[in-house]
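Help! Submission page says 'invalid entity' but I think these are all valid:
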Amino acid sequence: MSGHDHHHHDDEHAREHDRPLSGPALRVKALESLLVEKGLVDPKALDELIDTYETKVGPRNGARVVARAWVDAAFKKHLLADGGAAIAELGYTGLDAEIIVLENTPKVRNLVVCTLCSCYPWPVLGLPPVWYKSAPYRSRAVIDPRGVLKELGEAVTDDVEVRVWDSTAELRYLVLPERPAGTEGWTEEELAGIVTRDSMIGVAQVTVPAGSRR
Amino acid sequence: MNGVHDMGGMHGLGPVEIEKNEPVFHSEWEAHVFAFTVAAAAHRRWNIDMSRHSRERMPPAEYLAATYYERWLFGLQKLLVEEGLVSARELETGRAESKADGARTLRAAGVAEFLRTRIHARLEDKVPPKFKPGDRVVARNIHPAGHTRLPRYARGRRGTVERDHGVFIFPDTNAMSRDKKPQHLYTVHFTARELWGHAAPARDGVYLNLWDDYLDAA
């Protein structure tokens, strides 16, 4: 590893332009130049792709799906029966997979993983975080989901069933977390504001953050 | 293949660490690997299963040491050369020796449409299902040297068919020879005890999506 890699992320990003490129950065630049020169990729399309996943497609999409399900029983029913179609109603579609929605209840906790690679519901959650794609999560989620949850501060009691969903096909999973107590009467928009990415993967529950009361 | 990518159930790989306020990309080069990998797929020279298999073929020690987008970079370079979009010499020297057919090259104006267009893994072929919900099945004890989506931890284990999703492309053959081999895909439920032994919690279970070719009646 070069010294470059030891810098903190923000720092690394800031320095990228004024330090010599090393390791992967150099190889990536060389390959991109080649692909552009051959006419296989268009740099403007690359910028558009990056912008799409940095600013347009992300867990805010999924949060709106969850909030709608919490306030609209008919939508929730549709969502659980045909996740992809219900989600498309809100305008989130795309790429190669169908989406299945898994409902958490006081007695059932769902946890999503892809042990073989990094399958993740892009249209509703954007690109997966590093931990989701990492060896620790991929190895442990199936053999010790309770241990993983406990480590993340989400210990599950013995009377709750833990269901782990290993994404092995072109079907993607979105967890519908439980609506937290104390949110009665909240608007859909306010509810969407407290739904986290991790709650839709299943490693966290939605809570009412201190100070977020209306 | 029995590769190191098939991680389900391994020990010793460390704690799960969630980064607070994680950026979508941790550096500019990661963003670019992501973008040109997606853009290169617009040429339709490979399918998603070939793409996954290209990353699985990274040597195991390298795979474990690599970051996520380094694996993507490795896989893309393999596919570019194997599927004839770039020659090995061009990759080596970094200099283009010929121009590509740019007819399918993804343009900025086409990105939204490209991302909206679903490439269906679901097929319309009329293939009868071998199983129905409620059937007891056993995942085959097979060890294909090529691509497979049957994790090692489920092989030889007994489960129950939960749901029949209809007919889908079979990834094992699609990755190796572009043979879609249409067949039913199911969600199969395995109890945690069946997979991990009697120390596992009685209520828990793992659900996998498995195809007819992975299953026998139990």
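Support: the input was valid. A stray whitespace character was the problem, and the output above is from the cleaned input. The longest strand of chain B covers residues 158-168.
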